[in-house]
Write a structure and sequence with these properties.
heterodimer; A: alpha+beta; 9-stranded mixed beta sheet; 5-stranded mixed beta sheet; 5 helices; about 20% helix; globular; B: mainly alpha; Cytochrome Bc1 Complex, Chain D, domain 2; 2 domains; two-stranded antiparallel sheet; two-stranded antiparallel ribbon; 14 helices; about 5% strand
Chain lengths: ~230, ~325
């Protein structure tokens, strides 16, 4: 009798292991392909800078095969925070995930969620990703210092938000991938740095055309790391 | 058995409102009222713990005796004697409103409290500070446990509790309402005022809530000491310049002064402003309209003991 139960147990365990596979996706922010460590100095061309805060929302992360939906990955809304190393890792137990050749996600929070009141977890306003004076999530936040900033304490503060047309800054990202159980996504901040220092946009804290133009760069900064 | 034990904690309370009211816009199916959350929200509403120096509560500018406005103060007050730029609006019938603040900058009642909590000229704190202060209080932890089934206090729970209490602030028992319910009748003057009101005022101040809760420019020149252009600052569209949220004209006797910057102390001044805006009213007609407006004072609401100060035990 005991043996039978044990057999059953073994059988069940092995079935579960076969059927379930973990997929893990990591997000790694970089400047000039070097991983970002908060509050350390970077020399980027003739710009020297230090990043003190990098947070953004990854939402509706999903696997697709061409245009066919395959599976969701992780929570609907995920807050990436460069200050919390674990927040860059999103993993999902998969039951027969099937083949996929691209992953899709949004940078930011959709307008429906925006108007639906308060939520717990990653959407809780305690994360500093919600504007108090005018409703709206900050989709993407980048803060730091640079001697090139003529601002108080040489700070730059880039808060990209806005969920209503024509100032919606939610951006859809589609990345072609090869089916795998681990995917590493590099977030190359170079283009963002070039834009803010090139155009001297050191303070951005409200929705509008400047935020829209910066958000338009988002689809270019995510790439699969080989 | 557990259900029986928590018999006094009523879940799924229906918001009380009379038949002549429309359905609320707030989604009670998704977020039902709950007596433990309402009580917690009420305690938070009256607790200055929400402000940086423990001096200002929500009720400092939204007093129950003033229909939750700040009578006799044109502009709102904050910590360290700061003065704001707008008149604290009366709070009632919020379950029928979709956008909040004079300029509609806030898109959901849950999110409204973040603005005064964070504003340096109001409570000067932040939701993070509030959450950590509350988490250090065993009494609050118990209240949150009772209301939400969890001891850990989050920003979302603080805001949801405040929402629950504020949703219960229903003003629907003025003389006007009693007339609508067939329990009272207007005097001749009040009735004449009602007819004049329907002809001249009802487009913006739609009965029975006495506001369409839309935004409008009512012709007030900008106060150059404030340069407040209202909704334009939110939408960025010039057509919204000097548009402000249309307030309800219920409870006017309790909530003076009037307008977004509290510039008028009396209803006569308000009506004089509108006659200057080409709404033709004789002096007698103004008196009749005021007689009608006074039937919108809801003493039952203003003196409702269920809305009053309640301290954490």
């Amino acid at each position: 009798m005991k043996t039978a139960i044990l057999h059953l147990f073994v059988l069940f365990t092995s079935l579960t292991l076969d059927a379930q596979k973990a997929l893990s996706i990591s997000f790694v922010p970089t400047i000039d392909h070097a991983s970002i460590v908060l509050d350390s100095n970077y020399q980027y061309g003739d710009i020297s800078l230090s990043i003190s805060n990098l947070k953004f929302y990854i939402s509706e992360l999903a696997l697709f095969n061409d245009d066919t939906f395959v599976a969701n990955v992780g929570k609907q809304h995920h807050l990436f925070d460069a200050g919390l190393p674990t927040s860059g890792l999103i993993s999902q137990e998969m039951t027969e995930p099937g083949a996929f050749n691209n992953i899709r996600f949004n940078i930011g929070i959709d307008s429906l969620t925006h108007s639906a009141g308060v939520f717990e977890g990653d959407l809780d306003p305690i994360h500093g990703m919600y504007w108090s004076w005018q409703s709206g999530y900050i989709h993407f936040k980048l803060e730091g210092t640079s001697p090139a900033c003529p601002t108080r304490q040489n700070k730059f503060q880039i808060h990209v938000g806005g969920y209503q047309a024509p100032n919606n800054t939610l951006r859809k990202i589609i990345l072609p991938v090869v089916t795998s159980s681990t995917l590493n996504i590099e977030i190359a901040l170079d283009k963002i740095i070039q834009r803010i220092f090139g155009q001297k946009i050191f303070q951005m804290m409200s929705p509008g055309p400047t935020a829209v133009a910066l958000a338009d760069i988002f689809p270019q900064i995510f790439q699969i790391k080989k | 058995m557990i259900g029986l034990m928590s018999f006094t904690d009523i879940k799924d309370i229906r918001l009380p409102y009379p038949d002549h009211f429309p359905n609320p816009t707030f989604d009670f199916q998704k977020t039902p009222l709950d007596s433990t959350k309402i009580l917690l929200g009420r305690i938070l509403f009256y607790d200055p713990i929400l402000s940086k120096d423990n001096s200002i509560s929500c009720a400092s500018c939204h007093s129950p005796y003033n229909a939750f406005a700040h009578t006799d103060h044109d502009l709102s007050h904050g910590i360290f004697d700061a003065i704001g730029t707008r008149n604290a609006p009366a709070l009632f019938n919020l379950a029928w409103q979709k956008e909040f603040m004079w300029d509609g900058a806030i898109n959901h009642i849950d999110m409204q409290a973040l603005a005064p909590i964070s504003h340096p000229g109001e409570m000067g704190s932040s939701i993070n500070e509030v959450v950590s202060t509350l988490n250090a209080s065993n009494a609050y932890k118990e209240l949150f446990q009772k209301a939400f089934g969890e001891k850990t206090i989050t920003g979302a729970k603080v805001l949801k509790a405040l929402t629950q209490f504020q949703l219960t602030l229903v003003s629907a028992n003025a003389k006007y309402d009693k007339v609508k319910m067939g329990k009272d009748s207007f005097t001749l003057q009040e009735n004449n005022g009602y007819l004049l009101f329907k002809k001249n005022c009802n487009t913006c101040h739609q009965e029975p809530l006495f506001s369409s809760y839309q935004f409008a420019n009512n012709g007030l020149p900008v106060d150059t000491t404030l340069n407040d252009f209202g909704r334009w600052q939110v939408t960025g569209q010039t057509k919204d310049s000097l548009h402000f949220k249309i307030p309800s004209v219920r409870n006017l006797s309790y909530s003076y002064p009037y307008m977004h910057d509290g510039r008028f102390k009396t209803l006569r001044e308000v009506l004089n402003h509108y006659t200057e805006q080409k709404i033709p009213l004789t002096s007698n007609e103004k008196a009749d309209i005021i007689a009608f407006l006074l039937t919108l004072n809801d003493a039952d609401f203003v003196f409702d003991k269920n809305n009053k100060y309640y301290k954490i035990k």
